From TrEMBL:
Pfam families: Glycos_transf_2. Keywords: Glycosyltransferase, Transferase. This is Polyprenol monophosphomannose synthase. Residues 6-173 form the Glycosyltransferase 2-like domain. GO terms for biological process: glycolipid biosynthetic process. Belongs to the glycosyltransferase 2 family. GO terms for cellular component: membrane. GO terms for molecular function: dolichyl-phosphate beta-D-mannosyltransferase activity.
Amino acid sequence: MVDAVVIIPTYNEVENIERIIKNVFSLQRDFHILVVDDNSPDQTAKKVKALQEHYPNMLFLIEREGKLGLGTAYITGFKWALERSYEYIFEMDADFSHNPNDLIRLYNACAKGSAQIAIGSRYVTGVNVVNWPMSRVLLSWGASKYVRFITGMDIHDTTAGFICYKREVLEKINLNKIRFMGYAFQIEMKFKAYLLKFKITEVPVIFTDRTKGASKMSKGIISEAVFGVIKMKFKSLFNRYEI
């Protein structure tokens, strides 16, 4: 029985999706994959459907009506996974910025170690980022430092999106009360887990920027993270923050 599922949200990832799926399925540990596609104009979903014929009962697809945001894609995937028997539920990008080989290390941190959440961390042992311009490295690293300072979380990579959750974590967090839809979603999930006192471990990984397809980063996403974190922390201080 496969006890782990990797959720991969997609929007215009047809150049990457086949290769990332095949890489995950070639690992020595068995994982299932759930692709959550936001009606990609480049026919990403069509490519996944074709691959499903080769990977029956291993590769799953949810098609949504439009570009609804990273956070809602993962929440949709989380709910789908919780309706099934998976014990370990992963977040991973489609663009190879997250190395599929590291899935096993994150899995082991939860399944064999004491972690209830394992984060693939770019900054726990320095700065492990490849092919990013220095301006973006400083923005990402600075954002994680800022979030750590504001929230008090002992996490070096607070904005990381390469994560393994044990089932019990997602069962405890009220997924219907998640407010952020962009990359701040990653911060909010960690903050709620932190408030619930789950054991969070950072596993050092090397993050490599995409070589195919376009980045989804925008000024609006950054603004949501900067101002949303302050609001989130403020509410928690006065017990007005719903977990």
